[in-house]
Here is the input.
Amino acid sequence: MKKVFSVIFISFILILSACSSPKSGSPIEEFNYTDQDGNSFGLKDLKGKVWVSDFVFTNCTTICPPMTMNMSELQEKVKEKGLDEVHFVSFSVDPEIDTPEVLKNYGKSFGADFSRWHFLTGYSQQEIEDYAPKNFKTVVKKPRDDDQVIHGVSFYLFNKEGEIIGEYPGDKEVPFKQIIKDIKAAL
Here is the structure.
């Protein structure tokens, strides 16, 4: 019984650590994927820029539409403040379905400014399921018998060095004022 309890306890700790928030100032690994225009886009394209990212997928029936609407609202608030150098990156968690064309239509439906908002695909399901927890400390998992992907709902703010400096709820009660304040400090 003691052995079973130990295994459960260790599993619980591992799960908690895997789902913890990314450490402030944490750099992420280089990436180079495909954007909504079919072009190569990666971390090198964001060098020297402040950016906000999230994880979504286009056939999501629950959380992604509100998250993407909130990202669109943040995009507009950033424009209103004249913070034109800020970029946005949405990683698809369902890359087999989310082709560049599908992502472009999805972005258009939310008023995305594609000169500053990049929707990424061009990797395997396994790649994004490995990349997200390793770099963002968030889960991405596509169940075998379901078309809905499990993923985190945070917005992540990056500084010009490509380091995560903030994490915020992206689904509801988005702290827009705090994000704008933090963006201004990062610029």
